[in-house]
Amino acid sequence: MPDDCIFCKIIAGQADADIVFRDDQITAFWDHRPAAPVHILVVPNKHIDSVNEADLQDAELLGKLILKARDLAKEQGVDERGYRLVLNVGPDGGQTVFHIHLHLIAGRRLPVFRE
Ligand code: AMP
Ligand code: ZN
Asked: Considering the domain boundaries, does residue 112 fall inside one?
C-alpha cells in the first residue's frame, strides 16, 4: 500500500471513517464532506490509482463496486427515487484521492451535468 494513501489507511483500519460495509474486496464509508444527504464512497481494497491504471483483471472487481453501490442505495432507501454513481478520473475529472472510488450520491435532486 502506498504510505500516503488515505483510503488504504481507512481500509487497513489505520485511519478513522464511518464504515458502512466491508468484505475482503470492498470497503464502503461515508464521505466526510458529503455533497448530498447520502454520500458513500465504495472502494476496492486493492489500491489502484484511477480508472486509467485499471486493467482487465480488475474488471470483475470494478463491476462489483457498482453492484455494491446499488445494494447500499437500496439499504439507504434511495433506490426508487434514484441516485448518481460517479467515478472521477484525473485532475480535469475532479479526482482528489488517487485510489479508485465510486461515489454513491443521493437524497436530493441532483443537477444535470452541463456547465
Ligand atoms: P474525488 O474528488 O472523486 O477524488 O473524491 C474524493 C472524496 O473523498 C471527496 O468527496 C472527499 O470528501 C472524500 N474524502 C477524502 N478523505 C476522506 C476521508 N478521510 N474520509 C472520508 N471521505 C474522504
Ligand atoms: Zn490506496
From this structure: no
- Domain of 55 in residue numbering reads as 6-106
Nearest to residue 79, comparing CAs of 111, 43, 104?
104
Residue 114 lies in a domain: no
Is the pTM value of this prediction over 0.90? yes
| Proximal ligand: closest to the CA of 51 | 1
40 touches ligand 1 (CB under 6 Å): no
The tens digit of pLDDT for each residue in 15-28 reads: 999 999 999 999 99
CA 27 to ligand 2 center in whole angstroms: 12
Q: Helix H segments across the chain?
A: 6-11, 59-75
12 in a structural domain = yes
Number of domains in the chain: 1
